[in-house]
Amino acid sequence: MRLIAPIVKRLSRLGLVLICVALVSYGLMMASPINPVDAYLGPQMAQVSPEQRALIAQRWGFDQPPAVQFGHWLRQLVSGELGWSHVYNQPVSEVIGQRFQRSIVLLGSAWLLSALLGFSLGVVAGAKEGSKLDSIISTYAFITASTPAFWLAILAVLLFSVTLGWTPTCCAGPAGALNQEVTFATRLHHLLLPVTTLALLGIANITLHTRARMLELMRSEVATHAFAQGASRIDVAWRHGLRHASLPAVTLAFASLGELFGGSILIEQVFAYPGLGQATVAAGLRSDIPLLLGIALFTALFVSVGNMIADSLYAVIDPRIQPGEL
Amino acid sequence: MRQAQPRLRAAFSLGVTTLLVVGLVASQWLLGDFPQQMQFNARLAPPSVDHWLGTDALGRELWARTLAGLALSFWVGCLAALLSTLIALSLAALATLSARLDALVSLLIDTLLSVPHLILLMLIAFALGGGTQAVIIAVAVTHWPSLARVLRAELWQLRQAPYVRISRALGKSRWFVLHGHLLPHLLPHCLVGALLLFPHAILHEAALTFLGFGLSPSQPAIGVLLADATRYLSGGYWWLGVFPGLGLLLMVLGFERLSSQLRRAL
Amino acid sequence: MLIIDHLTLQLPYYADGYATWWKRRWATCLDAFSLTLSPGEVHAVVGASGAGKSLLAYAIMGLLPIPARLNGQLYYQGKPLDASRQRQLRGREMALIPQSLSALDPLVRTQRQVAWAAQRAGQPSAHAWRSSQQALDHYQLDTRAQQAYAHELSGGMARRVLTAMAHVSQAKLVIADEPSVGLDPLQRQRVLAALRELADQGKMVMLITHDLRHALPIADHVTIMRDGKRVETALATAFQGSGASLTSAYSQALWLALPDNAFATTTVSRREQETNVA
Hints:
The complex is a heterotrimer.
Chain A: H1 4-31, H2 36-41, H3 50-60, H4 66-78, E1 84-85, E2 90-91, H5 92-127, H6 132-145, H7 149-163, H8 184-218, H9 221-228, H10 233-255, H11 257-271, H12 276-285, H13 289-317
Antiparallel strand pairs in A: 1-2
Chain B: H1 6-31, H2 62-95, H3 99-114, H4 117-128, H5 132-160, H6 162-169, H7 174-210, H8 222-230, H9 238-265
Chain C: E1 2-14, E2 24-37, E3 42-47, H1 53-61, E4 69-76, E5 79-80, H2 83-89, E6 94-97, H3 110-120, H4 125-138, H5 143-146, H6 155-168, E7 173-177, H7 185-200, E8 204-209, H8 212-215, E9 221-226, E10 229-235, H9 249-256, H10 270-273
Parallel strand pairs in C: 3-8, 3-9, 6-7, 7-8
Antiparallel strand pairs in C: 1-2, 1-4, 4-5, 9-10
């Protein structure tokens, strides 16, 4: 009972936030000066008569007041119908489903890599504060935290694909090859550079955060007491530091899913990797409103679940918080 | 000396940064429309004595375009950080007025934080239809939630502080409490918050323009320059991709360093 | 035997509101402080807050923050106690009972922390586990307390856990920093009795406190400290009657200001009176 109530509370909050996201993003789309009919027609805009335009507007419901349109869209949403994407000429749910399958490989591996490496580097740097190793790690993290994601991707392409020729410059598989024909090794080869770039950027955040936690601990009274017992810095880092730094690191990893997704949009753009990020940019640039709304909602769900896990972890793991007081 | 005098180092950093920023702004005034001038006899020229950082496909000098892009980034970053801080401060103040408003503000914060920054930026830039103002507003509107959270918590704590309650019980006006007790506490938070926002704002501005939202392709913004460069990558025109990004990195790094030193010193 | 010979300690600070606000200044926290501690005795160091008592403990243990300036000499068992020797002896020969209860790791169960202290003193892990059990039993902490986290312990229990951690290391020098703060009389009695017991086993015990009243019943010698300087060192028995055998006016005033004595405040300035506020 004590565990169920907070979960219900969190889930209802999640639902509320998602409705707000839908409202805000729909409002933004409505506020846009771009005419939805023009956007739908694209380059054929000039060849269409005003009567046909009115027909299209009626067909898609563009002529009705915004509140009615929103209500209609929300009703469709509840029944699982996200609309039709004119850029891909497919239902939005299918586009998101297919694209996300490709993106999740990229996102998942970069996320795991950055969390594990970032945590270990942060612990080492924090435990050996002021040493050469620490200054190398923190300089690295400091620089990558300030690096534009797409620029790092451009540099990676320049170095590894153009100059050295080790990795392909684009896409998830060889150009023209069908999805089924691409072997696992080829896929991995195409994923290597995007994943590494994305992970390199993600590491910085977790490293800096973990290092700060470690420094805080190393200067705390717990550490001074341990030193008074004759403990070495490594002993303190291992016994006390890992305990104190791991929970914040895991929390941060879950809470930074949104940032990771933002990074993946940029990196998919540079590597022309056909994932969800690339679809987002295409939807935005070519005014594919249903697809853009669908992606906004989908990523909001993805990020909020991450945030929810991050918030709940403390309650589950930290002995100082009782299960009741979430 | 290395660890010895944090305040001296912060003062030094502040001086150097100010000098560089003044130089950057002055250079735009001196250069005029030089970044847009095309030289058809020197298209895609590699870096040399004549063309310091090389030229692009229309023979425009990359160094001048990079400088122009950095200046634009600086202004966008400044305005966006300022606007963002103002939004954060006013919403945090609003949240302390009543429990209902507080719930509303925190729902708004949760909503904005649950959409990835970049997607929200795209949505807002899309809604505003592009242009420099759209970029500034988009960056400002997406970056305030984290600062607002800090300020809101701080304000709640301050309102419960004994000296504020005593001041109220003594019948001091709202204005006196705000001016005499609350603002002096909040201003340092705002300053640090704005300084922290600035690099983020610049990076997101560059990302947004890189993806093709907001600014027109002719405008020399760092994002536009780099998006341009991606088309020439496989041709080996490396300078197009390297220098604008390097400039941006150095600028962001400079401001990050300044803000971390200021925080350490104060 | 621990000899502290003219120890001077300076720490950096910044003065706000001056034109040279960026300039670092040095504050003298210990000023040519001397003291001798022999085995089998409890030596109380008494002073107001800010007199430099805790810094003295950290200086002996070698745990001062890095940018500190330290002058003077420390001798332990006849040999100079320098940084490398401090590192060797910490936790084995010298133990510290810290002032703050937040010195207990909030994420580790009590018995494990005591066992770690034993391991750090050089005991093999199986043995450390057993001796931690014994130490906790000795200080009357039951199984529930042994399996508890720090936030689940009362102030007195946490204090006894800290004492157990010093006890389990078998150190010959125990420095207790304000061990009686925030405890009710019964708990205080227990903690102070535990310190007396350590001294009776032949160990050196330095009891740092701001409260002369609590120190006197168990102390052999008392050193009065003020602004980083030693005012005087006297036998605990000198604090009786009108305090006539005390040589300095400050110690006499301190003694006379106690509630059981004259409760005299006429000769004591407000600042000195703080010493008695428990």
